[in-house]
Specification:
Blueprint: H1 3-26, H2 33-45, H3 48-59
Amino acid sequence: MSRVPIAATVGILGFLLYVGLAVALADAVPRHWAWQALYFLAAGLAWVWPALRLILWAARK
């Protein structure tokens, strides 16, 4: 079985879980613009490393 369908399924499900968690945790961030900017910057970039690892795994032979 090819790794691509597995990676696509895991990636989509993982991303949906990640978005749900990020949105749920956003309620705990203080309402000050600086805290919110830091949180959303971190939350917006935190998915890149796991997604890159998943893509590299799927592309391996």
